[in-house]
Design brief:
The complex is a heterodimer of chains A (94) and B (635).
Chain A (H helix, E strand, L loop, with lengths): L14 H28 L7 E3 L2 E2 H37 L1
Antiparallel strand pairs in A: 1-2
Helix pairs in contact in A: 1-2
Chain B lengths: L2 H21 L6 H6 L6 H12 L2 H14 L1 H28 L4 H5 L6 H34 L3 H49 L1 E2 L15 E7 L2 E4 L4 E9 L3 E8 L2 E10 L2 E6 L1 E5 L5 E3 L2 E2 L11 E4 L7 E2 L4 H8 L5 E12 L2 E12 H4 L12 H17 L4 H4 L8 H31 L11 H7 L3 H38 L6 H25 L5 H15 L1 H9 L5 H20 L2 H6 L15 H18 L10
Antiparallel strand pairs in B: 1-12, 2-3, 2-7, 4-5, 5-6, 6-7, 8-9, 8-14, 9-10, 11-13, 13-14
Classes of the chains: A mainly alpha (94), B alpha+beta (635).
């Protein structure tokens, strides 16, 4: 009884799809994040260079990582919802 | 005493407590107490996530660090937010599917192992307590200027209120407190940033005319036969303190006033720059800037511009958000930031706060605090920090338990996305608030944690009162969440499951409440001990412990079918011991022990780069060695 969730769970046929998608999207973001860390270590002066509207690379990359996180989160949710609906409709047909 | 901030503050605290008592009726069952019955709407839970996450570290610590170290403080914002990607893509839905009340439930879902129950519960307790320390330090920091009470009293007040909240209503009230506070924090931080941009830049910031700008003295000097001689004959040198690699400081007497100066060399000439200081004499007397410390004689708030894009005539109103950052980041901009050094001199314990003039392009990139251009060890420290911030979020117990408050895995995912939006927006604001404090002469040189609230005060007492009350609620909410997590670990994981006590639902809630009181008292004591340490730095350490102790187990359980319960137990143990071991022997802790940081046997402060791989490796090796003996994960 102790392993039951606090709220009753339905079967989630899309979980495998969502897990695979999540891992790939995580790896992509991790790569972009690692790029930020690597530039700071390998070529820290590059962070001073102005790249957009008077803003330097450090600010643009930093803000970019924050905005990218939100965009990827919305894309991920969009794909997940689509798959959940598709499988739910498929279940309904059976 | 100004009563308005006190009334606003009391109003907030009253509202929070009222909410707790109102929701107390929902916390009579264990599911209600630990997981709010799993009935919270995902949008409310998302903002509550933001409320949980935007703790004292984010609002006080990050803004404070940006105010004194520039972009390096913003690294925390980037890392903290990036951590949510791990939470969303890897952890959110599986955690919801696997668990009931606690992180231990999820880890143990396929094994039913006493070892996992014990190790994961201890890990939850350790990480929660590490995370509680900076929250309590933040509480003390807030109460001092708001209510005029000592740090320790502030910590005790927060501890007391939180114990009441948690012991009364558990996760339901904690969720709504977090929702309210998270929303208000984002709204009022936006107001501060708009005010900063409208105010613009000034060479002599005076807090809207409320505090006259102090012009620091600068005295030319020469060196004759190794003796320093000021050109102003009325200034007499009393002593020189050379602190290698940091600064040469000069104690002077002018009339009857003692002042410390920093010796600089400008264009080949010696210049003495006026500092601030606090000296504790043997008899207990405390002197600040040459006179006895009093209510009116305290350290001056600091931080201002010397040049803006090469010009010393600075008077610019209403700058755009990009323009603000671009102008500050110019190589021709110079900012006066303040650093500190502590030492003993003539029987006095002295803390000198000295100005450091730094170019804008250095302020607006990493390197002021984290030496990305330094030695290999310093670079390693930077990588270690960024790794821990990235991987720590998804392993924080008070974040993980919030996945159990929503009804479905899809709701867990959606609430995480709402959290990313709110938290990401707030973190962009931190850069403006921190830099705004840096150039508006509002930074307390002895404790940068108050930079954001003091920036708000420079715009008026009402904004200060509201922001301080929200910041206080921030601490209350986060501490409540942490204490719920810790009490769940004790009552549900340790007593009920590991101890096999088979508590009834009511007794489990009672045990949770008693645990909350004990953990709250421990947090109060630690909050008093750690006074003065930057709260974001302390949270960074909590992230490192969480990422080392918890994340390898979560990830491997989900993605590696050969994971055994022995592997999980060993991984948690190695993660806790290695991360805390490195922290205890780090330069920062040596400073807290009252010793020189250079004496620390481990020359860096962030353990993640060693402890996280060590924990992963341990799990893999032990799991491979125990394939026949232990059960494996059904991933």
């Amino acid at each position: 009884m102790f392993h039951e969730p606090a709220a009753k769970q339905d079967r989630d046929p899309a979980s495998g799809y969502k897990t695979r998608l999540g891992v790939w999207m995580f790896l992509f973001y991790a790569l972009v994040y690692a790029g930020f860390v690597a530039i700071n270590l390998i070529s820290p002066k590059a962070m001073e260079s102005v790249v957009f509207s008077g803003l330097n690379l450090a600010v643009v990359y930093g803000f970019g990582l924050i905005v990218l996180a939100l965009i990827m989160a919305l894309i991920y949710n969009g794909f997940c919802v689509r798959e959940e609906r598709r499988l739910a409709a498929h279940d309904g047909e059976v | 005493m100004d009563w308005m901030p006190i009334l606003v503050f009391l109003g907030f605290v009253g509202a929070v407590l009222g909410m707790s008592f109102y929701f107390a009726r929902k916390a009579r069952s264990a599911a209600g107490y630990y997981a709010a019955g799993g009935t919270i709407h995902w949008s409310v839970n998302g903002i509550a996530f933001a409320g949980d996450y935007l703790s004292a570290a984010s609002f006080l610590g990050i803004c404070g660090m940006i105010a004194t170290a520039g972009y390096d403080g913003f690294l925390y914002s980037i890392g903290y937010l990036a951590g949510w990607i791990v939470a969303l893509f890897v952890v959110a839905e599986p955690m919801k599917r696997l668990g009931k009340y606690t992180f231990t439930d999820a880890l143990d879902s396929t094994f039913n192992s006493k070892g996992i129950q014990l190790a994961a519960a201890i890990s939850t307790l350790v990480v929660s307590i590490f995370y509680l320390i900076p929250q309590m330090v933040g509480a003390g920091v807030l109460v001092t200027p708001l209510l005029g009470l000592p740090h320790a009293i502030g910590v005790i007040i927060v501890g007391g209120i939180v114990i009441v909240i948690v012991a009364t209503a558990g996760m339901t009230s904690t969720t709504y407190v977090q929702f309210l506070k998270g929303g208000l924090l984002v709204v009022f931080s936006t107001i501060i940033v708009v005010a900063v941009l409208i105010r613009g830049f000034s060479a002599e910031p005076d807090q809207g005319g409320k505090v006259p700008f102090h012009k620091y003295a600068s005295i030319a000097a020469t060196e004759v036969d190794g003796t320093l001689v000021p050109e102003d004959p009325t200034v007499k040198v009393l002593g020189v303190k050379d602190i290698p690699k940091i600064a040469t400081l000069v104690k002077t007497l002018h009339g009857d006033k003692t002042t410390w100066f920093k010796k600089d060399v400008v264009d080949g000439r010696i210049v003495l720059q006026e500092c601030q200081y606090e000296a504790h004499g043997a008899g207990g007397a405390v002197y600040v800037n040459g006179a006895e410390k009093s209510e009116t004689n305290v350290l001056r708030q600091a931080g201002s511009l010397i040049k803006l894009e090469g010009s010393t005539v600075i008077e610019e109103k209403s700058v755009g958000p990009f323009e603000f950052l671009a102008k500050l980041g110019s190589p021709d901009t110079q900012v006066k930031i303040w650093k500190s050094v502590k030492f003993e001199h003539d029987g006095e314990k002295v803390a000198v706060y000295y100005p450091s003039i730094t170019a804008g392009n250095k302020i607006m990139k990493p390197g002021t605090k984290f030496k990305v251009e330094g030695t290999p060890l310093e670079k390693l420290d930077f990588v270690s920090l960024m790794l821990a911030l990235f991987l720590g979020t998804a392993a924080l117990p008070h974040i993980l338990i919030r996945y159990y408050t929503v009804p479905t895995p899809a709701a867990a995912r959606k609430s995480t996305i709402v959290a990313i939006a709110a938290i990401g927006f707030f973190y962009v604001l931190t850069l403006y608030m921190g830099l705004g404090a840096m150039v508006n002469e509002v930074v307390n040189p002895a404790d940068n944690n108050m930079s954001a609230p003091l920036l708000a005060r420079s715009f008026g007492m009402l904004l200060f009162a509201i922001i301080s009350a929200i910041a206080f609620a921030t601490v209350l909410g986060t501490v409540s969440g942490l204490i719920v997590a810790a009490s769940g670990a004790v009552a549900h994981d340790l007593m009920d499951r590991f101890g096999g006590m088979n508590l009834t639902d009511n007794k489990k809630v009672l045990a949770g409440k008693i645990s909350a009181i004990v953990v709250g008292i421990i947090a109060i004591i630690l909050g008093i001990i750690f006074q003065g340490v930057n709260v974001s730095f302390l949270v960074g350490l909590a992230f490192a412990v969480a990422a080392s102790a918890n994340l390898p187990s979560i990830v491997m359980l989900l993605f590696w079918k050969k994971t055994t319960y022995q592997g999980i137990v060993a991984s948690i143990a190695v993660g806790i011991v290695s991360s805390i071991g490195i922290i205890l022997f780090s330069p920062t802790m040596y400073e807290l022990y009252g010793r020189l940081p250079t004496e620390a046997p481990i020359p860096f402060a962030n353990p993640g780069i060693f402890s996280i791989p060590a924990s992963f490796l341990t799990l893999v090796i032990v799991s491979l060695l125990t394939q026949k003996k232990g059960g494996t994960a059904q991933a």
